[in-house]
Fold each of these.
Amino acid sequence: MTELLGQLPLAAGEGSFWMPPKGSTVALDVDRVFYFIFWTSAFFFLLIVGLAVFFVIRYRRREGVEPGETAHHNLALELTWSGIPLILVFVMFYMGMKAMINIETPPSRAYEILVTAQRWSWLFTYPNGYVDKDLHVPLDVPVRLTMRSEDVIHSFYVPSFRLKKDIVPGKYTKTWFCATKPGRHVVFCAEYCGTQHSDMLADVVVHPAGEFEKWLADASNFADKLPPAEAGKRLYEVRGCMQCHSIDGKAGIGPSFKGVFGKKHAMTNGDMVLVDENYIRESIMEPQAKVTAGYDPVMPTYKGRLKDAEITAIIEYIKTLAEPEK
Amino acid sequence: MSDSDSQRDRDASHQVPPRPPHLAHHFATSKQQFKSGKLGMWIFLATEILLFGGLFCAYAVYRSNHPEIFAYAHAYLDKTLGGVNTVVLICSSLTMAWAVRCAQRDQQRGLVVLLALTILFAFGFMGIKVVEYEHKWKHGLLPGERYRPQGLDDTPESSAETTAAAASKPASTTAASRPATSRAAGTFEERSRIAPAPRGPAGLADDAPDAKPRRPEVRNVHIFFGVYFLMTGLHGLHVLGGIVAIAWILLRARKGHFSSAYFTPVDLVGLYWHLVDMIWIFLFPLLYLIH
Amino acid sequence: MTATTLSYGSHDPDAPNVHDASDNYLTHGQGLRSWLTTTDHKRIGVMYLISVLTAFFLGGVFALLIRTELLGPGRTIMDADTYNQMFTLHGAVMIFLFIIPGMPAIFGNFVLPIMLGAKDVAFPRLNLASWYFYIAGSVFALLAIALGGVDTGWTFYTPYSTQFGGQVIPIVFGVFILGFSSIFTGINFIVTIHRLRPQGMGWFRMPLFLWAIYATSIIQVLATPVLAITLLLLIAERTFGVGIFDPAMGGDPVLFQHFFWFYSHPAVYIMILPAMGVMSEVISVFCRKHIFGYRFIAYSSIAIAVIGFFVWGHHMFTTQSAVANVIFSALTFAVAIPSAIKVFNWLATMYKGSISLDTPMCYALSFIGLFAIGGMTGLFLGSLGTDIHLHDTYFVVAHFHYVMMGGTVTMFIAALHYWWPKMFGRMYSERWGRFACLLIFIGFNATFFPMFVMGSQGMPRRYYNYMEQFKAFHHSATGGSYFLAVGFVIMAVYLLHSLFRGRPAPANPWGGATFEWRCSSPPPHHNFDEPPSVGDCYDFSNLVYDKQVGGYVLKTPDGAGDSEAGR
C-alpha cells in the first residue's frame, strides 16, 4: 500500500498558470481573493499603461505646437480617482480577512498531529506516538497541527493548501487544514534557517477514505514487525538522521555512518574514541559531548525523543554498515 | 524670513557692512541662523526620544509579561543612591539653564563657573553610577547568561551594598512571589536532602545527579538586569557625551566666543542636557521605584 | 520687492547669476583635500554619488552571482553557505548602502538648496559629517564581508542572528553607523526647508521634489533611531547574552521583528518618496505642462510618510494574532491610495502636453508601468488570505524589486540623467541613453516578472536548491539579469564618456522652471549672487528654446511680469 502511494504523482493537473492545484478547503477562498485582485489590477494596469502610451503618441512634441491649456487641478476628478480605488481596496481587504479567518479557525473536532521543526528536517508525531518524516493525513478530515521548533524560526508551508505558519521557538504554534485532494503535496520551510533551508522538505500524503488508519497501524508497528537492524534503518530515515548523516560515505552536516562502527575516530579535542554501542548511545543523547573532528556541534539531542528499544535498533543498523573485516 | 530680514539681506550683499564672525555664509541673518540651530536641535532631541523609546517599549513589554521579575529584582537597586543621582542631575540642569542665562546677559564669569559646575555634577552622577555598577558586578547581578547572584546575605537593603539571599526575600516591602523554602542562616546555596534518583524520566528532570543549587521561584530574573543595564548604560553614554559637549562649550566660553549676540551653542547644548536629565527622571521611577 | 534681472539670454557678463561656467563648484578649490574637507553641498552630493554608485556596483555583483548560482538546482558555482551569504550581502549592501541613502544624499544634497535659491543647506558641516558616517558605516559592512560574511538575510531575524549567522556584529554595527548619516541628512533637510526658503516661497510654491524630500526626511528622522536601538539590542544579545530575544531565557524572538519592521517599513517610503518627487519634476518638464493636482500630490507625500509608520505588521502576517493582522491589513490598503492618486495626477499632467522622449522621460514612462505592477502586487500581499500563501515566496521578491528597482532605481537613473548636465556641465548621448533604457527595461522584466509566477506557484525565497518545475523561470531570470548588467555597463560608459567629450551643457537644457535651471551648468560655488524671484515653478510659458544656446532661455526678464502664483 505504501509503495502504491509512493507512485502517486505530485498532485498536479488542476493548477493554473499562477496557482498550484487546490488541495484544501481554504484554497478555494484564497484563490478567489487572488483572482479578484489579479483582474482588478490587470484592468488598472492596462488602463494606466494604455493611457500613457496613447498620450505619448497623441501628444508627442511637434514643432510649433504648444501644450494645451488645461486646468491645474480638478477636485471632482481627484476625489473620484481616490474614492474608487479606496472602495476596491476595501473589498480586497474584506475578502482577504474572511479568508484568513477561515484559515485561522479550526473546526472543533480535528485529528491532532504534532509537528517538530528542526534544522533541517520535519518530524510528525501521530497520536499513537509514531513519528514519521512525512505528514500522512486522511482525505476530507480536518487535521490540527500543533507545531514547535527545536532551534530557530521555521515556517510550515504547503502551497497546495495555501497554508503557511511560522514556528517560533519557545512556544507552540497551531494551525489546521482539511485536505481535499489525495496524493502527495510538498511541504517547504519558508523561513530562512541556515545552510540546508532549501532542503528542508517533506510531503503531505493524503490517503483516500479508509486507508489512513491502515497506513498508520502498519507504519507504527514496524519496530515490532521488523528485525532490529531494519527497524533501525526505518528510524534512520524517518527520525531526521538521514538529513545529516549519509550511508554512502559522503560527509554531510554530520559524518557518514558507512564503515564507522568498530573503528576509532578523532574527536574535535584530539582524543581518539572507539565508535561502539556506548559511543553511539551517548552521541544520540548528548551529541555535544564528543564531536567528531571536522564537524560542527549542531546535532540536536534525542533525549526523550527516542525510546531505548529504538536506540538499540539504530545501533544495530549502524553495525550493518560497518566495513567487513579484511 | 520676514520682509525686513530679506531687505537687510539685500542691503548686506550690496553695502558690505561687516558680517558678524559667528554668522555663517549661507545664512542671511543671525536670527535665521539661531532659529535654524534651535529647530535642528529639537529634531535631534526627537530622535533621541525615539531611540530611548525602543528601550522603554522593551521595558513595557517585559514588565507586562513578567511583572513578578520586576517586582522581585528592582529591590536589588539602591533607591537612595538613585534618588541622590536624580537630585544631582536636576541640579546640573539648573546650573546649565543658569549658564545659558549668563550667556544671554554677557555675564562671562558666571557662564564659565556654571558650566564648570554642571560638569562637576555630571561627574558626580557618573561616580555614583560607577558605585552602583560595581556593586552589581561584585554580586553577579548581570544581564543574561552572566546573571549569577552571589555573596548576598539575608539582611534587606540597608546601605550601599544591597544584600539579599537568592532563595529568600531580598526586600520585605512587596509581597510578590516569595519562595517559601527554608534556608540555613547566612548560606546561599541550598541543597535538597532527598537523594537524587539514578535517572529521571526522559525529558523531565534535570540532568546530572549532582544537584545544582535551587533557583529562586522567580525565573529569568536576569531580564530585569538586562533592561536595567541597557537603559542606564545607554543613558550613561549620553551623559558622557554631554560632558564632552559641555567641556567644549566651556573652552569656547573661556576664549570669549559667546555673548548676548551669539550664544546659540550654549543654548543648544543646554537643550541636549535637559533631555538627558529628563530621560533619567523617567528611568528612575521605572527602574527603582516599582511598587 | 526689488526685481532681480536675470536676462542671461543677453549674455550680459554684469548680470547677476550669469557666470562663466568654467568657474564653478568643481573647479573652485583643487586637490583631494579640498574635496574631503568641503562643506559645499554640491561637492558632498558628488562624493555621495561616487560612493553610492560603488555600493550599487558591489550589490550588483552579488546579484549576478546569485542569479548565476540559480541557473540550476543544487550546486552551480558555489555551496549553500556561500549562496546564503550572497543574498544576505546583496540585500544589506543594496538597501543600506545604496537605496536608502541614494536619492536624498545625492540629489537632495545637490538640488535642494539651489531649488530654494539658497547658498547651502542649514548645517553644511553636519552635512560633511553625514558623508563621513556613511563611509565609516560602509567600512564596517565591508569588514564583515572580508572577515567571512553574514548569512542571516538582510533582516537579521532572531534567534538565528543571535546564535549563528557569521559576522553579524560588524555588519550590524556598520548599519548602526549608517543610521547616523541618514538621521543627520534628514535633520539638515527639514531645517533647510523650514528656514531657508526664499522670500515669497510659501510651502505650496515649493517644487514637489522638495515636498518629497521633506516627507522622506521626516521618516529618516523618526524611524532610523528605532533601527539604531534594535541593532544595539541585537549586538548586546550577541555579545553579552542579554537574552531579550531568546525564548530559553524568557525573551521573545518576535519582539525583534516588531522593532526591526517598525523602521524597515517606513524605510521603503524613504526609498520611494524621492523617486515620486523626481517623477513630478520630470513629467512636468518633459510634457511642458503644469503639474496636475499639486496639492493632492504634496499632501499624498505626507500621507504616505505618516500612514507608513503604522503598517509594519504586514511583514508578520504568518506570525502574529488575527486581530493584529486585521488592523495592519486595513492600514496597509490605506497607504496604497495616496500612491494611486499620484499616478493618476501624473497621467493627467501628460494629457494635452507636449511630450518629448528624452532619456529622463523614457525612464519616467518606464516608472509608470513598473511601479504600477509593483504597487498593485503589493495589494496581494496586503490582503490576508493571499499573503499567507505568498509570504516568503518569490512573489515577494518580485514585488519589492518592481517597486525598488522598477520604481526607485528607475527614477534614480532618471534623476541622474535629468541633473547630469547641471552637475557636470556636460550633455550625454541621447541615443545611447534611450538604448540603455530599453535594455534595462527588457532585462528587468525578464528577470523579475517570472518570479511572480514562481512565487504564487509556491517557490519559497532564499532557496539555494529548488524543484525542477521552477527551472525555466530561473533561466529567464538569470538571462534577464545579464541583460540588465549590459544595460548598466553601457550607461556607465556613455556617462563617463560625456564627462570628457560631451557637449557643454547650457544652463537650462530641458526647459525646467525650478531654480536650479537659472544658474550655470555646473553651478558656481555659491549657487546664486541673489536668489531668483519666486514664481510658479511649473509654469513654462516664459521659457523658449534657443538653438544657439542649445537650451532654454527666458522670454522676458524674470520678475518683469510677476507670474501667476503656483497652486
Amino acid sequence: MQPPIILFVATATSRALTAEQAMSGQLPFCMPNTSLAQAAKMMAENRVHELPVIVDQRCLGYVSYSDILQRYVKARVEGQAMDIIRTPLPEVRPTAPLDEVVALLRSTGRLLVLVTTAEGMPLGAVTVRDVSRVVSG
Amino acid sequence: MPTLSKVLRELAQTCAPDLSAREAVRQLQTTGADLLLVEQNGTVLGVFGHREAVAVYADGSAPVRQYMRHPVPGRNAADSMEAGAEVMVREDTPVVILTEEEGPLFSKMSRSVGMVTAFEILEEIGHTTTDTAANKIFFGRKDLGLNIPVSPCQRACPIHQDIATYVDYVSQGRYLDSWLVIHETNPFPSILGRLCNHPCETDCKRGWVQGPENAVSIKSLKRFATDYAWARKVKIEYQRAPENGKRVAIVGSGPAGLTAAQDLRLMGYTVDLYEREAKLGGLLSASVPHFRFEMDQLLWEIQMIIDTGVNVHLNVNVGKDLPLQKLLDDYDSAFLSVGMMKGRILPVPGSDLPEVISAMEFLRVRSYDIVPDDFPKGDDVVVIGGGAVATDAAQTSIKTGAKNVWMCSIEPQDRLPAFGNELVEAREIGLKLHTGVIVNAIKADAQGHVNGVEFIRVDAGKLEFDPESGKLLINTVQKVPGTEHVIPCKYAIFASGQIMDFEDQLTPLSPRKLIAADTSGKTTVPKLFAGGDCVQGPSFIVDAVAWGHRVARSINETLGAAVPRDAKPLTIIETTDDHREADYYGREEPPILPAAKRMDMTPVELPWNDEQAITAALRCFQCDTVHHVDESVCILCGACDDVCPEKALDVIVEGEERDTSSGGFVKICETVLGEEFGGKRGRIMVNYDRCTNCRICEDHCPVNCITFQRVRMPDDTMRMIPLTAVSAPPPQVGAARG
C-alpha cells in the first residue's frame, strides 16, 4: 500500500473538479424580508456563516453571521435581511474549475461562492465546507 | 439577561499544532465537526475549521499551526451572551472558550469548562427574538415533525399540483419560483392556465367561505406565472437519471404521451415518440383552436420535453404504417395514448354529403391554418352539438368567415355541456343557439350540396341528466312528432362525440370500444400500456396529464430499471404571511378582447398585470401551511382556543374541563408543563377543515410559540436556464395587447 500515491491521485482528481461538481446538494438561502431572527436560526441549523439573499431566482447579496451578532450586541436584532445585506457575493459559472472558485474564496474572504447561469440565476453554491470535503479526499 | 453558560457546549475535538493540515481537514470531515481546537500541553493555541481548508487546498503540506486562527478568545461562563457575541465580532473568530473560576478568594484559578460557537448564539437569537417579518423561509433537510398537509385544491387536482405554494409565490412577486413549482407536476401550464376545467377551484377554501363563485382564480394565476417566465425567455433543464438501457415506445404525442415521455426520460429510459400528425401535441395542437391559447408557449413547453432527449417520429401511423407487434418486439414497453381524435358523425340521412364534416376534423384542418375546401365563407353554418368542441367549432367557423353560425343541441340552454365563459364569448361574436332539438336529416339541393339541416323538437320535460356528471341521459330523449323544421345552411359540422381512431388487432378493446386497461395503464397484452382518453373516454386535458404521470410510474414499476437518485429529497420549510386583508378583494377573471376584435384567430384572453395577479393570489388562505407549536414554550393557556373565530382549535389539558368541540384530529402540540405550571400534561388539536389560516391564534399567543409553516419537498431536478443565448431586457409582463 502506498498512501502518498493514492493521495496524489485523489488530489489530481479533485483539481479537475468543476464548480458544479463540487457544489453542495442544497443551498440554504433567505429572502430580503426574512427576519434576522429567522436568518440566525437558519445559519445555526445549516451550519453556515453566510447566507445568500435570493428572490425570484436572483441573488441580491448575502447576510453575514458577524453582522447579526453585531446587531445583537447593540440590541437591534429585530430587523430584516435587507437591513444588513452585503454585496456582492462572488459568482462563478458551473463549468468554472474548482481552482478558480478557491482563488475567489481566498481573494474575497467569503465563505461561499454562488454558482449561477450566465443570466445570474443561482444553481447552487460552493462553500468552504465543500472545499474541505474535496481536500479531505 | 441570558449568560453564556446557557448555551455552553463541550470543548470541540482537539488536534496537535504539528499535525499535517490535510490530516486535520480529514479529521474535520470524519467527525463532522465544525472546527478543531489546536491544543498543546492543555493550552488552546488556536482554532482550525473549514474556512482554513481553503488555504490548505492551495498547499496542504504545512502543519496546522500555520493555518489556524489564533488566539481563541475566552470569556467567563457567567458573562452575558452579548459579551460573547461582541468578542466573536471583534476577534473575527466564531468561537469563545468559556472558563469558570475556582479556588479561594485571593488565589482563584480559571479553568476551561466548555465553549460557545457563533451557531449557539445565532440559535438563541432565532429562538428568543420576536419575529415580525412578513415572509420567512427555511431551506434544508430538517424534519420538524410537522404534519404535511394537502390543501383541498391540491387534493382535487388530478395531478396534485402544489397550488397553495405557487399561488403564494405569486403573491410575493416570486413569479419564476411560482412557475418552477407549477412545472414540478405540470408540463403544460400555458394551456392549463387557460383551458383547465380547474377542479381545484371547485374545492377552494375561499370558495367554502365566500361562495363557490368567489374561489381563488388558481387557473389564471398559473397562466400569469407562465406568461412571466415566457417573457423572461427561460426554460427548464432537467437533471436526468443515468441511462438504464431500457426502451419505451409511446404512440401519440398528446398531453398523456408527452407527459409520460418526459417522466420516463428523467428516469433514464430511452423514449421513442410516434405521432401520425406532422406536429406534436395531439389534441392540444390539432383540436384546440389557436384563439384559445398561445401556440408559441405550447411549442416552448413541448420543446422542453423533447430536450430531455425524446426521439420523435412524426407522420408515422402506428397500426397502419407500423404494426403494434413490431413496437412490442423492438421495445421493452409500449404506451398507447392515441386519444379520441375522430369526430362522430351521426348516421342520419344526408350525413355523407361533401359539406358535412366532424368538428374534430374541421378543427384539425384549421389547426394547420388551412380552410376546408367546401367551407362557405360568407354563408351559413350549422354546428350540431352543445359541448366544448361544438363551441370551439362554432367560434372557429365565425372567425373563418361564416355569415351565420347556429349551434343546435338537445339540451336546453341552461344545461349545455359547454362550460366556462366560452359560450358567452361565442354569443358575443354572433353565435346563434337553437336548443331542445335533435338532428333528423341533412338536406341537399338538386346538385347534391348541403342546403339545410332538419331538426325535430324533443320533449324538454322528459329529459333527465346524470346527477354526478350532469350529462344528458340519451335514453330519456323523446322526439315530438310534427315539429320538424329546417335551418338553411351550406355546411354542417357534427360535434356529437368522439371515437378512437386507432386500429390494431393486438389492441384489447372494452365494451365501449375503448382500449381496455386498468387505472395504472396495464393491458392484458404483455408490455403494452394504454392511458388517456383512449382508455377513459373524452375527458379534460389535466386528466390526460395525470394519465401520463401514472402510466410512466407504472411502466417503471414493471420494468424496474430506473436508478434511484443518490440525493435525498430536499425539504423546504417556510413560514408565510397572513392574508386576512384579502377579504376585501373579490374574484376577478382575466379580461378578454372586445367582441369586435375577436373575429380572427388571435388569442382572446388578455394577461393580468402584476397588481391583478398579486391581488388574486393574496386571496388564497394557504391551506397547506399548518401551525407549528414550540412545545418547549407552550403553556397550554388556551388563548389560541379562545380567540379562534372558526372554533378550529382545542387545547386539552388532563384534569381540566375545557370545550373540545372543534372536531380536530390533527395534533399540533403535546407537552408536559414544568413544575411552575403544576406539571400538567396536555395537547392541542386542530380541525383543518375549519381552520382558515387567519393567524389570530399566532397573534394572541402570549408566549409566542405558534408559527405557521409550510413543508414541501420540491423537485430539485429542475434548473432554470435562459431560453436563448442572447440576453434581452425582459418585456413588461402584464402589458395589455395593443
